[in-house]
Amino acid sequence: MLKKLLPPDRWKLPVLIVCSIFLGLTSFIFYISKAHSYLSDNPATCTNCHVMAPQYATWNHSSHREVAHCNDCHVPHNNVINKYYFKAKDGIRHATIFTLRKEPQVIFIKEEGAEVVHQNCIRCHSKLLNDPKLEAGVRAHFEHITDRKCWDCHREVPHGRVNSLSSVPNAQVPLPESPVPDWIKEYINNN
After folding, report:
1. What is this structure's pTM?
2. Buried b / exposed e across 142-180, counting CB within 10 Å, b at 16+?
């Protein structure tokens, strides 16, 4: 059975070469796209795409910076499988958009993502929503918890007003690192 899967002797070298090239290109694409960074919860990862700089800057200047990172709000937390499925699906969509250079100048959240963020607002703030001392205000929240999103009223939480790439012109954001290894940079500079 295993012998049927192996190529004939004359094809072993070409198959090995093609497989090596494929593995090399895959590794290179994984490295150049910083795919490994998306497995973390580091908010600076979001700035791998330049169009996310305003979102990063406004979050970084908000009170949410102290208690919540991007994944705390933007991915589901009902189970690990759903979390990473959502991240992978969203990541593939983003990677495709950025690879094809189809990114918009202004980012708008998709409906599925908006629902995830809304549920995470409720999850994180449920203790506050159930506080009997705030009964009058909380009752109004519960009356509207299904017919509108939290940010319909809390418009500037946590990103402020992000209207375009120029909405936060003086904000300091981490610039994406160059994927070019130092030894190549030195070689180029010396020649």
Report:
1. 0.70
2. eeeeeeeebbeeeeeebbbebeeeebbeeeebeeeeeee
pLDDT in tens, 38-62: 778 888 888 777 677 778 888 888 8
CATH fold of 69-169 reads: Multiheme cytochrome fold (1.10.3820)
User: What residues does each domain of the chain span?
Assistant: 69-169
Burial of 140 (0-12, 13-18, 19+ CB in 10 A): exposed
Q: For residues 96 and 153, what is the distance between their CA atoms, to the nearest angstrom?
A: 33
- The closest of 46, 30, 56 to 90, measured between CA atoms, is 46
Helix axis angle for 111-129 and 135-143, nearest 10°, is 160
Work out the pLDDT band at 91, boundaries 50, 70, 90. Answer: confident
Length of the chain, in residues: 191
At residue 136, the 3 state secondary structure works out as helix
